[in-house]
Design goal:
globular; four-stranded mixed sheet; 8 helices; alpha/beta; 6 strands; two-stranded parallel ribbon; about 210 residues; about 15% strand
Length: about 210
Amino acid sequence: MIDPREPIVTPVPVEDLRPTQITVGMREVELKRQMIRAQDAKKKTGAFLGRHMVPVVLGPKKRNYVTDHHHLARALLEEGVKDVLVTVISDLSALDKDAFFFVLDNRGWMHPFDENGRRRDYSAIPKTIGALVDDPYRSMAGELRRQGGFAKDTTPFSEFIWADFMRRRIERNAIEKNFDKAMKDALALAKSKDADYLPGWCGPTSD
């Protein structure tokens, strides 16, 4: 096991990173790409990457499995950035593949749900960051948090939990047709009592 108090930071090729989820919100990826482009010099880009290290778990064959910042990793890939700094939070490279995925799942380091919110077999998780599938509800959840619909929370994959809440209440074609209008509906839903069990809920209370 890696001591989290003394993280090992090392550059890794972005294209070699392995995801631990099936989807990303491509609108979120585009926002990350804009952030990267805003770094107009190599020095600034280096500082940006230094503030956005990607946490990974070492799996079989010492492969780097991303446990967070999938959107940043996909944005870096699409922007042609070759390497990213990673910090190893756990070394599980001694495990076989089945045991490795089981441990990831049970520690909350994996989200094997597809763009329709359905749980899939571990084999459905893409082998590359570039193969991640778009889930517009994940983009909605990211924007919802930025607009104050819910607070940042330590619950693993909290944005996906919010995405699934919205998936059951807002039609996908409504998001694709008019994202801003759908966001108004999402904000209203986020403040409702129906959402009070979700991580980071900050709706009105009677206290």
